[in-house]
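Objective 1b. Sequence-to-structure analysis of Vgr related protein.
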Amino acid sequence: MTTTQGMTIQGTTEPGRARRMTPGEVAMARTIYRDSIDYGAVEIRRRKWAFFQPRHVAMAPTGHVHFHPQGDWREDFSTEGLGLRGLFLHELCHVWQWQRGVYLPLARHPFCRYAYAMKPGWRLPRYGLEQQAEIVRHAYLLREGYEVPGAPPLAQYESLLAVFR
């Protein structure tokens, strides 16, 4: 069933439509972001943000997560494999940035770096926009027991995630 605004209430989200975060997704997100995101304001959209969005690229430049209609869309990312859960949490970092006043369509240039090196004394906001999202993703993967090649110990990530407390 969908509302007049095209939001899915239950069932399958059709291409071009959107849904709210599931309880499982909110619970998963809270393990990282706690209450620093207004989860009720976030839409998970099964449509491209822009015409050029590739099939296997998710985008969250304006406070909502956009998945290509024929791409990595899932009805509940919290029940998916570790890779898709990590991707979802990466994109929620951009929602967090947006909700803090960062206008991502202008702040994120096309050559943003995803790679990062942990710097002593740096807090999460000091890293680049995509680096912040990758740090969150890697922290989640490490918490789940996945070995991230070249990653420092989980304790270093936990200190950066303190920004969400």
